[in-house]
Amino acid sequence: MVTKTSPLLQIENLHASAGDQEILKGVDLTVDRGEIHALMGPNGSGKSTLANALMGNIVYKITRGTVTYKGEDITNAPPTDRGAAGMFLAFQHPEAIPGVSVIQFLRQALSNRTGTDLTVLELRLKVMDAMKELGMETSFADRYLNEGFSGGERKRNEVLQMAVLEPELAIMDETDSGLDIDALRTVADGVNKLTTPERGFLIITHYQRLLDYITPDVVHIFMEGRILESGGPELAARLEEEGYDSFRQVLTQAK
Q1: Which pTM was predicted?
Q2: Distant-in-sequence, close-in-space partners of 254: CB < 8 Å, separation ≥ 6
């Protein structure tokens, strides 16, 4: 039953596999409305698997545990249902779609998200307002989706999609990957502008540098398919100072 006190996202004992390989090994995580959570882990730890499993990617099979969103069990729900319910995934490597403009893509995505079709003018005004707020050139809307885009442009486009689709839960899978400092600041500024008391963020990252511009409420250290430790922003500072080796020692001791 959905109530106002239900967590926005609740993951309990989540196990997931790709083929015969188990990648997630018992993840427990709760994100409430208005919270920003940072999930930090080294390459190959299973961070992207978690993001994809949360969005229902069929490549990853959930073998145990549950995913609850706004009080509803969505463990086996298809990706379209999750997107329509207000979940959003910003990809680490957004794909190009030649022949489909950014604004055409947004029109279809918004229709699927809300069930209503805006007129071309209504949509363009909405997109232009979002671009202005994010400091983006308006000509961006008529370019083919991610075709010929730089890495920074692709990531800014993901933030634009968030601004237009207005998800309640935004999962960002290493959005900072491959960005120079200016693009990183632009993306971080966009996320900060989209932060509201009703929207939750799960920001997945390898490095601490994104958190220089986005202050998380909770930081999780993620290694070998599980969360080893959770804490406040000071945990990210500790990671920056000590690296992942100190947490690997904890993992080894736990075994």
Answers
A1: 0.91
A2: 228
